[in-house]
Amino acid sequence: MGLKQEINHITDELIDFLPQLIDVSTIVGDSFYGNMNNESWLLVGQIVTAIDDLYKTLVEIENMLIHVESNHAWKKPINDYIARIEVIFARFNEHTDADEFVMAGDIIRYEFIPLFHSLLLFLGKTEEESNKQFSTNLLFLQEKYPLIYDRVFQLQRDELNYQIISSKDGNANLYLNTPSGQFTNMYSEYDINTEVVRWVAGSVEDVKESQFVLLFGVGFGYHLKEFALKYPKIKIFLVEPDPQVFLASMYAVNWEETLAGIDIVDFALGVKELDDVELLLERFCVKTGSKLNIQDLPKYQKYFKEHKVTLLQHLKYCASKFKLNEKTLDYRYIKHTKNILNNIAANLSTPSVRTLNKRLDGIPAIVVGAGPSLEADVEYLKQLRDHCLIIAAGSSVQSLQHFGIKPHLIVSIDGSDKNYVAFKPINREDIPFIYCPQIDYRVVDLQYEKTYHAYLKNDYISKYIMGYSEANGDPVFKETNSVSGTAVQIAIYLGAKEVIFTGQDLSYPSDSMYAPGAKQFSEKEKLSILSEADQWIENNKGSNNKISTTMLVTLRNFENMLTLFPDVKFINASSKGAKIKHAVYEPMGDIVKRMSSDKVSMTIEDIFKNEKYHYNKQSEMKEKLFALPQQMQNSIKLTHRMNNRLKKLMELSRTNPNKCLKMMSSIEKDWGDLVKSIPLNTIYQYALKNKIIEFDRYQRQLSEERNIQKKARLFERVLGQLFDAIIKHSPELLSYLEEAIERVHQLERVTLQGDKNV
């Protein structure tokens, strides 16, 4: 048995022992106020022995703690309990020896027994009780908050830096090592309830008029519960910046009881997990617009400042995105849906990047951006072309061709019209090209030769039609905020163990955006973007570059992506660029010297050979595509039917509740069929992303609402918006689908004509 386990075992025995000692001490204490007899003195002897055993046990724990971590939360309290027992025991003996029995009884009743109660509260739960609480909480999260469950399930508990203790009021507390390296209690050492009540009463008066609040810091849920009691109508977004804090709480508090009746809109664990927290912040911005109300738990204001800064950076970025308004975002998803569908013909005519997996095993890759640093590295790039795979990230190929450099590979994913304008004049006849289906389909149409396709994880449409699977080794990449992130992942998929960045400034050195040759933005647009650069970030030269919130979030997103590949060496050679975490700065000149003896260009040039899908697989994909229009028509018909019933619910909830319930049941049945349908899980899931997110947010509230009129209102609001969106956009989406099918038929005709000519 390890030392920690031995301490836990002794502690569990004390927790069982102390209630018995308290009971006997109560009897003995009372007996001192009356006539002492032989039986009374026998009991006195028993508690004296028991107190002596308790004292020795605490001394044993104290000695064990000497060999445990230096910052163990129990060291000082255990020492204090030992000292108090020594003092009280000495006074008890003094009074009994002097036959001062009333004084001895007072000491038992008013000093020993409170000490035993205090010690019992201090020791908290047994290990078995704590583990049982964790299991109960885990089941609750799995049912109610599956994303949080997945995160918690993957965590390894850090018991050294996050120690569960008890306050003197018996509530669980946390003794934690803060980001600054200072150990502190999360809550009051004495009275957590008073702390929490006063915080809610005095610190959050500004929330009275708010409909939504973001609570930064969850801790053990005490502040959250009191806040919800005072403001029951406010809907709450929760962000716990430190996952280990929440993991500790899983052993200490009952989360089902804590969250009961609280209107939680969304919950994110950790601010570095960009996908989770950005999704929550996007929802927060959708709901609150410019009226953002964020409340910090007291200790989080002091000890989690860096986490708060990160959160605010994400929030500012999300808020700026939503200034575009929902219509603009919907338009972008709709446009990308058109691109994905129209690129099916290209997917069927070009090989998958899977054919290139590990083909460049061990060959270094350079991912080139169009940042200002690129110009200084141009001559070095020319020298490295025979030693590394040079990848042009998106329209950076404009700058490379401006300087007379031919990359080995171009990667592009941008679905905007600007990307087509950028690529239209580019001659890529001899340059292999990798795209993801969200790209403007006209870019891919420019040339199918030497072209390969890959996928992004959120592309539900291609996943269904093309039948790809990341588990089977297909090229499926994490969506990032820039094409450079995709290019890095592709380089690693091809086999690179070292990835070098140049022109990846991820900031605005000397108030400039691009290297010469880049033509994607007008001067007016550049000035507008630069005007938003109101922050500073350290660069590779030790000075600072201007950076905007949007670019800062892009940088952090890029850095987060790099952590997915701990076995890959990342080199930041962008001399003027921002420092990039997880990448070491090395000047390009030094890289040239280091790689001058390794010539690999023939290997690189030879591996890019087009390979087509087997015809049977193409047939299967086409069948899925050709069946979608009818499937969509069925889904549209079903949606109209549900929507017609939906409009009657509010009136029925007032006039005929039973009929209203039956109609809700029929809607739920049809909704179940729609949820299982292929169109909803592919076309609508992607094209109507915002509406799907909105529905997901209220789905739990809808299922749990028992008041029939409130439930009818929720039906109308939650499902109604989604139904309206499906009905509104379906004609447009159907036309894109028909266009995609016609493009595939046209491809078949061209292929057939080519075969006849042969």
TrEMBL record:
Quote the InterPro entries the UniProt record gives. Maf_N, MptE-like
Q: Can you name this protein? A: 6-hydroxymethylpterin diphosphokinase MptE-like protein
Any idea where the Glycosyltransferase Maf N-terminal domain is?
211-263
Could you tell me the superkingdom of the organism this chain comes from? Bacteria
The chain positions of domain 6-hydroxymethylpterin diphosphokinase MptE-like read 338-510
Q: Which organism is it from?
A: Paenibacillus chungangensis
